[in-house]
Amino acid sequence: MQTIQLEHLFKQQHHQTILKDLTLTIQAQSKIGIQMSHVEATTLFKLLLQMLPQTSGVITGITPDHIQAILHNDGLYPQLTIMSYLKSFCRLSDFATNLDDLLQFFALKDVARVKIKHLSADQQQRLALLRAFILHPDLLLIESPLTNLTNAGIELYLSALAYTRTHSITVLLTSYSLEELVLTSKTIYRYHSNTGLELTDLATENEADNSDPTPSTPRPIFKVATKVDDKTVFFSPNEIDFIESVNGVSQLNVSGEQFISPQTMNELEQQLTTLGFFRCHRSYLVNLQQIAELISYSRNSYTLILKSHSKIPLSRSKLVNLKALINF
């Protein structure tokens, strides 16, 4: 795939600015995720497919015939069976691989003769992915693929997505959920309507990297300081649900609100470890008392669900330490 470059992309529609100052490089085999709304994602996809002209900015390297998109509300043909539906796309693309073998990799073999209207949401998402696989684009754009899926459905979709990527298909995903992007992408951006794309600290960690020094014995503290305008606001550790590093800035999450701390994640980890906090991911410190569930989507993907219903990633390398701390 040729490298695609978006430079200072700007799109206005119906007197509203949808995208502003969006700059992005999409290289072959990159695993990019972007946190953005449905309207923003749809507009971006249409620009890449050249279904819409940009208001300003430059897009280079685009070959629309080699790009496919799967939107969250994509329609299928409900009266067709999976097999008859897929065969029509095989004819369009001169696809030669045996469909029976392929259905196995997308966990759809047992429902191959079932009408699409009778499929679950989990199965329909995998069917949309398989349809795109058959068309074999250089670049596949997917919006919110894991939204509303069951835990088993997420695990099966992630497996099918990994299989898709092994066949030289570059996948760019968008979602409003950061958790979804952590599970599906390696390089994660947030889109801000005023400033464009912002690279996050949520890239997949190198699990083999043991270079981080062991933190020294933490000293007790009773309050964590944050800055709000010209004020300093203090929180007791038990009030904090979790702490997230956002582009190198520590952000306390307290009852659904975010507060900026002047301290680094390493400093906060040293101070809060003895007060019930755990570094579950390079970018997250979690209050152990707030953990309600642990979900495993695959051998390499773990998510913590908190009492507040927030979802945060757990690194595979941290799982053993967490088990020792909370005895499970």
UniProtKB/TrEMBL annotation:
It comes from the Bacteria. PROSITE patterns: ABC_TRANSPORTER_2, HTH_LYTTR. Pfam families: ABC_tran (PF00005), LytTR (PF04397). InterPro entries: ABC_transporter-like_ATP-bd, LytR-like, LytTR_ABC, LytTR_DNA-bd_dom, P-loop_NTPase. Residues 228-328 form the HTH LytTR-type domain. GO terms for molecular function: ATP binding; ATP hydrolysis activity; DNA binding; phosphorelay response regulator activity. Residues 4-218 form the ABC transporter domain. SUPFAM superfamilies: P-loop containing nucleoside triphosphate hydrolases (SSF52540). This is LytR family transcriptional regulator. It comes from Lactiplantibacillus paraplantarum.
